[in-house]
Specification:
With about 280 residues, the chain is of the alpha/beta class. It has helices at about 5-30, 35-55, 80-90, 130-140, 160-170, 190-195, 200-205, 220-230, 265-280; strands at about 70, 150-155, 175-185, 210-215, 240-245. Helix 5 links the parallel strand 2 and strand 3 (about 175-185). The chain starts with 6 loop residues before the first helix and ends in a 6-residue tail after the last helix. It binds thiamine diphosphate.
């Protein structure tokens, strides 16, 4: 974790971490022979802020009763989550060396029975928020002071089950629940607004009874402020953080290109991707 004295140092630490982890995402996709690169690179800054600043967790005791719970509802983002969990110390980094290969604990989607730190096995979209509600309800019954965080994709929000869950969270007054949407404007088939428009997205969440906040999902200061400003777990309104992101963020030939939802890199593209990512590293 960050040993930092000031907000500036914290942001510098997080930016550095995100640069390391973007590199790792590229390297793991090469080991795996391909991966969900676009959505891993759009979500990584959100994961970095959560795992290195916000979540109360104990990597040496992944099932610690008092931990905050994080559910990766967009399970194809495992390419981003697994290196974060390794770096935070949930398991040895070397285990990633056969990522998504035969006999590896890591697939393209996270498995809670194989990967320490994974709260829910996901991959079939549209289910994470419903489970997060069940977990939040159990926390409420126990008068626990931990929170449940759930990261969804915007394309995932095409699933009707997301909106059933949204309705239920408000009905049960789950102020201990925070959804985050990786609003990169793309689903698997192309731009979300062309395939099935989600806008006015914020107003939809508000109409479903949520406190909705929009932030730039690559701006660490804005992400930190959104999470630090969450209402107390005893409050009665769930919060959604709509994080506006760029699919493929950090790699020039992937940014905003829908085809990089899933892809593989030859050695020349890997070199160019790593070169681009390195430019994001903060000075000093
Ligand atoms: C129920 C279900 N249907 C289809 C898929 C295939 N699928 C994998 S990723 C994806 C697109 C999801 O888009 P989005 O949530 O925006 O992901 P991101 O752009 O953040 O990668 C789809 C349809 C799936 N995993 N689960």
């Amino acid at each position: 974790m960050a040993k930092v004295a000031t907000r500036e140092e914290l942001i510098h630490f997080l930016q550095n971490k995100a640069t390391d982890l973007r590199r790792k995402i590229i390297e793991l996709s090469v080991i795996a022979g391909g991966g969900h690169l676009g959505g891993a690179l759009s979500a990584i800054d959100i994961l970095v802020v959560l795992y290195y600043h916000v979540l109360r967790i104990d990597p040496k005791n992944p099932r610690w009763e008092e931990r905050d719970r994080f559910i990766l509802s967009k399970g194809h983002g495992a390419l981003a989550l697994c290196p974060v969990l390794a770096d935070r110390g949930f398991f040895p980094e070397e285990l990633l060396s056969n990522f998504n290969r035969l006999d590896s604990p890591f697939g393209m989607h996270p498995d809670r029975n194989k990967v320490p730190g994974v709260e829910m096995s996901t991959g079939s979209l549209g289910h994470g928020l419903g489970v997060a509600i069940g977990v939040a309800l159990s926390g409420r019954l126990d008068r626990a002071n931990w929170r449940v965080y759930c990261l969804l994709g915007d394309g995932e929000c095409h699933e009707g089950s997301v909106w059933e869950a949204a309705m239920a969270a408000a009905h049960y007054k789950l102020g201990n629940l925070c959804a985050i949407v990786d609003r990169n404007m793309f689903c698997i088939d192309g731009p979300t607004e062309k395939i099935m428009a989600l806008e006015p997205f914020k107003r939809k969440w508000e109409a479903f009874g949520w406190n909705a906040i929009e932030v730039d999902g690559h701006d660490f200061a804005q992400l930190i402020e959104a999470f630090e400003g969450l209402p107390p777990v005893t409050s009665t309104v769930p919060t959604v953080v709509i994080a506006k992101t760029v699919k493929g963020k950090g790699v020039s030939f992937m940014e905003g290109v829908g085809a990089w939802h899933y892809g593989g890199l030859d050695s020349e593209k890997e070199r160019r991707a790593l070169e681009d990512i390195e430019k994001m590293r903060p000075k000093g």
